[in-house]
Every structure is written in C-alpha cells, then in structure tokens.
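Interim report to the steering committee. The following record documents the input for histidine kinase (413 residues).
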Amino acid sequence: MLRSPWRVLLSRWPWRSVRYLLTGTIFGFTWMLVVLVMFTSGVLLSPVVVGVGLLAATVGLGPRFVAQDRARLRLDTPKTGRRRRSRWWAFLRERETWRGFGYMLLIVLLVWVVEAVVALAPLLTIGALIAAPILVLLLGDQLVVGGPPLHSFAIWPFLPLFGVLLLVPASYLWIAAATARAALVRAISTAGKAELGAQLVELGRSRARLLDAFEVERKRIERDLHDGAQQRLVSLAMTLGIARIELEDSGEAKTATKLVADAHQEARLALTELRGLIRGIHPQVLTDRGLVAAVDELADRAPVTVHTDFDLPGRPAERAESTVYFAVSEALSNATKHGNAGRVDITGTCIDNTLVVTIKDDGHGGADPAKGTGLQGLVDRVAAAGGKLLLASPVGGPTELRLEIPWAATASH
C-alpha cells in the first residue's frame, strides 16, 4: 500500500475511513450531550432519590454505548435489554458495566474531538485549495490572504494541484485514524470476551471437579453397601439356611420351618437386589479389572447376544472408564427394551489419545434423545467427560452409537 499511493487514493478505503471518522464525530458529540445532561441533572438532584437514579443510569449507559459503537463496525452485538429494577444493583456491580462506562467517557470527552480534527482539518484544507480558482473568480479582491488579494500571488492557479497532492497523505492519515479507532472498539470487546472465556474455562473445571466428587461419593456408597449391608444380609441368609436345615432334620415345627424357609428366600432375593444396586452404582469389577472385563460382564448378563471386541493399549482414566461403562449399560438396556434387538456388537479402540467405543444393534431403530429413553442423560454424561456422542438410528435400524472420550479425561477437560 505504501508503494502505490495513487492506488490508495483511488480506492474506497480513504473515503470509508473519513466517513467512519465523521460519523464517529457525530456519534460522540450526541452521546456527550446525553451524558452531560444526565450527569449534570443527577448531580443537581443528588440530594433526592431521583438524582441518585440518574447517576446510576448514566453509569448504566456504558454497555449500551459499547453495543452501538460495535454496531457501527457491524460487529456482533449482544442484546442489552431493559433490566428489572431488582437487578440494577447487580448490574452496577458488574465489571462489564464499569468497563463500558470508562470507555464511554473516553470517547465523549476526548476521542470524538480527535476524530473531528483528523477528519475535518485536512478535508476543509483540501477543499479550499481545490476550490481556490472558483473562489478567486467569485470574490476577486475580497479574497485576501494576510493583506494582499489571493489572485496577486503567482502561485494561486496551482493551488488545486496542491490540494490533490495533499489528498495522498490525508488518505493515509484517515485510514490510520480509522484503523486505530476500530482497534479501540475491538479492544474493549475483546476484553469482555477474554473475561467470559476465562469464566467458561473455570465453569468447565468446576463441573469436572464436581463430577469427580460425585464419583468419589458413588464409590464410597458402593463400598459401604458392599462391606456393610451386603455382608449382614449374607450372614442372615446363611443363618436362616442353617436354621431351616436343622428344623427340617428334626421333623418338628412345620409352621416354623415354613416361616424360616420364606424368610430365607426373602433374604436371598434382597441380597440379589442389593448386589444389582451396588453394581448399578459402581461395579466392583470396573475398579478391580478395568473397562474390558466390566463390559464383558454386562454382555454376559444381557438378554441378547453381545459380541465385544476391544483393542486398548491399557486402562484409560477412571472417568473415561466409568462414562463408557454406563453408556454401554444404557445402550444395552435401550436395545432390548426399545429396539427389540437380537444382537449387539461393541468395539473399542484408542485413536489419537481418544477412547472410541461403538455400540451397534440390529433393532428397529428410531432412537431419539427427545423421547426420554435415557439418551439425553447419556449425552450430558459424555459431554461432562470432555467427549462427544454420535447417534445414527434411522427408522428400521440399525442403531449405532459412537462415543469419543479423551483417554485421560481429567478436570482440564
């Protein structure tokens, strides 16, 4: 651009830049009047509640000012709707509000004046030089410069040429000023986005920490049930079994024998249900032997034919294992209850530090997370582990579920 000044002059950028500076001058001057009126009124009425409200409203104009200034650059602008009265105090405590207020003061007190000088001074000077011959013809001796009339100077016929030559540096000046002004708008916008990005990162980390805490609590409950209630039920069932055998051998108290037999059966059923509950909370096999063994156990208990094929370099992170295990469990449940599947194929591998598990059944398809089949909860669980879930389930089948979860699914995800 520096090597072709005339190309710059003939392009649209100088004129777009000077237009941006001129509209910025009008924009800043208008807002200066608004801020001046509101602030002055607020100060004068500060002894009463109305004045305090006007001062607060003046501060609250900051984000709206930033939004309108962004709109001049055609940047995406977040909606700044009307706030409820109960939220105004919280609004005034936000960093974005005061950042916008400071930016507004900078523009209305200083920047618009600079824009006016940079845009108008060269523009008026160049216009006067180019129009000099016409002015000489119209005004004659009345057009004077420091005493003598302008037409007495021998150089006056060349003034339009000087004006055209001045257009080149003026164009660069306008482009530079408009670029700096636009950079200022983007800077205030980027500051807010950076803060929002940091908040989102912290939100993701806090969610991960919360999930880790839930997982620890889940394991504690499983351990307490396994080591406490389950062991007592086992002992009760054994005692009732021994008592039943003793009563049957003695041949007496048939009623008592029947009651003991019923109690023994109930204890066995309760023990079976408790083991299923413990397995649903967190299977011991998943902790002891890993994901592959846990999925094989699910396959053995499934009422349909399940074929598993895992090729993993080791054990992934606990969160990845837990997420995949419960996803497979949910998928098998859906395949039998809702899909009427007769066969399910489960494959797992590691690709680019990502645990990829595919679950495919030959059911009638039509699975939809919106239908409340547990898929939406599965999507949320996978997302919380930093992964994603892909579902293909056309009507008529087959249904294919693909899980992609970071191999080391830690809190950083």
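The CA atoms of residues 222 and 279 lie 8 Å apart. The committee is asked to note this result when reviewing the revised timeline.
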